[in-house]
Amino acid sequence: GIETAGIAHVLARHEQGAGFMADGYARATGGPGVCYLISGPGLTNALTPLGQAYSDSVPVLAVSSGLDASDLGMERGRLHEMKSQELAAACVCDWSIVAHDAGAVWELIDRAFAEFTAARPRPKHIQVPIGVLGAPAASGPPPRPAPRSPACHPGEAAEVARMIGGADRPLFILGGGCRGAAEEAREAVARSGAASFSTYAGRGVLPTGAAGHWGAWLARPDSAKRVAEADLVVAVGTTLSEVDLWRDRLGHNALLVRVDIDPSVICDRHGAGTAVLSDAASFFSALLPHLERRECPWDEARIDSDRARWRAEVDAARPGAAAVSDALRAALPTGTTIYSDMTQLAYVAKEVWDMDRPGLWHHPYGFGTLGYALPAAIGGKVGLGAAPVVAIAGDYGFQYTSQELATAVELGLTLPIILWDNGKLKEIEDCMVGSQIAPNAVVARNPDFALLARAYGAGYSEPRSLGEIGSAVAAALAADGPTLIRITPDIAERP
């Protein structure tokens, strides 16, 4: 029934890939991504991407088959038998529920899509017993109207505006929840004269060069000193999690205002003095009429100095990656969507690579899984069509899901895949050395990536200098299928 319903089906090579593709599709389009899974190992293979979607607030719906109720708990040796698929998925999903008839399926789908719209978007799992899958079902009811997300009360916005107006050095921290409210956020921050940081997920909400904007340097230890200088901090659409800060405390001494659609966020350990349950767009829209325009009192020269110093720290810690990041940024068209993996090139790029608009860089932030970039980029490319999409992966993480090259080739997707090949698990090696541990089990034999790409029918290139990166990327963006572009760290020494 999929084709007759007008639903496009993408055949992944592994259930983990299917889950990441659904995640990538959702992040690119803003709508839910759906993955269909078989029972038992099919579901367990997808638990990692579902966990990633949960930690990064991505709307993914997983639909799996399951054993019939009469078989549950009986240990009869049925195919794909598990003690409880429902509980297994519940560990990494917002909820996991068995649909015992067709009516329950319709109801659960409506519930999932309503919650994707009105609450913090997180993955859901619907399990359909095999007997129900094969049973006749009546046509479903019409889709129910989607509710709206929590809106800011005008009185709350007026009170926050009063606090901002009374502060000498207000500071905004903008997270991924602000991506759909960039226009309103830019105007509110500019009008208030506040300085600002963004989280990694909030990059691009404020444009490069905005007054008082440090950028995505919040995880630098010294940023806590700058936060401490503010006499009011307003954090919007961010959990201020470990992977946002890489320290226990934000560093504020002043009143903290939290704005979020998730009540658990605004009541967390950071100790908000004022909490506003609202989505970012509603909050900023309600805030704007109450703000009086004023100049930013923060020292722009010192902000520029901080950014330069922090970039130097990053460059010294992971040599070569910043230069490659700059070359890639120069080579890519405006509006390119990027999916990155857990690799040192991405760790550097998400700090030094300024974004002019939000929602274009997607990374496995919270769960931190390897193998994300390639299948997620495939899902994103399917959702975005002709718009440019690029994957960035390390040599080790790429091999977690490299079989999905076949999916990209099969679909004829124009997809440059930047392979950062340092020949080892360099981040782990660096951590071992930093902890005075002799590096062990950090070097693994890599395949011949050129032959691997060609075996799948993908293109391949290997630029020999920073200057050749641009032409390699341009050729990949003009190809009729995916292209693996292998880059090694020593390329930074060959301009």
Task: Summarize this structure briefly.
This protein is α/β, with parallel strands linked by helices and 495 residues long. It is 39% helix and 15% strand. A 6-stranded parallel β-sheet has the order 7-6-5-8-9-10. Strands 12-11-13-14-16-15 form a 6-stranded parallel β-sheet, sandwiched between helices.
Helix content: 25-40%
User: What's the number of helices?
Assistant: 21
Shape: globular
**Cα-to-Cα separation, first versus last residue:** 54 Å
Query: Major β-sheet, in short?
Result: 6 strands, parallel
| CA-atom Rg in angstroms | 24 Å
- Taking pLDDT < 50 over at least 5 consecutive residues as the criterion, the unreliable ranges are none
Instruction: Return the average pLDDT rounded to an integer.
Output: 94
Beta-strand proportion:
15-25%
> How many E strands?
16
Lateral arrangement of strands in the main beta sheet: 7-6-5-8-9-10
What structural class results from the helix and strand content? alpha/beta
